[in-house]
Amino acid sequence: SLPCRSDATAEKEMTLAIIKPDGLYDNYADKIKNAISDSGFRILNERLVQLDEDAAMSFYAEHSSRSFFSDLVKYMTSGPVLIMVLEKENAVADWRTLIGPTDASKAKITHPNSIRAMCGKDLQRNCVHGSDSLLSAQREISFFFKEKSPGSGSMEHDEL
Ligand code: UDP
């Protein structure tokens, strides 16, 4: 019979996770990080960032025409956020499953074990972000973790 692919050789994938301002403000960072490692993700990189309006607008550019956009930008700039790169096999889809549906108030009923059910409040304040596709993950990871060219200011990205 064919040999099984071992964990050591399985294809790893990266996704971007964000603990949003409400999640940090309500002190959920440790609980969220425990859920992350209990589910087999490795945190490859992390940054605590205060987003400014430009950064939040650019990160959520795909939603710029939506009625909730300006409120979303206000929310995402209302306090610091914790940005993390997560690695695991099937990381993008598995992180989306772990965080649960967008509307945290509904998640509490339909997905009670999800992270958004645990620490989110409603459709906007849902305490965490997860990339929705492999392509989004790549864009979002390089948005926050750009390779620094030699001679560029090292604090560049902490001003976002
Ligand atoms: N959001 C909102 N109102 C809505 C839909 C979304 O305030 O009607 C916020 C919410 O914080 C959500 C973010 O905008 O997480 C991005 O929306 P998206 O539809 O991409 O949801 P997600 O992929 O984060 O579940």
TrEMBL record:
ATP binds at residues 20, 68, 96, 102, 116, 126. The active site is at 129 (pros-phosphohistidine intermediate). Belongs to the NDK family. This is Inter alpha-trypsin inhibitor heavy chain 4-like. The lineage of its organism: Eukaryota, Viridiplantae, Streptophyta, Embryophyta, Tracheophyta. The chain holds residues 708 to 867 of 867 of the full protein.
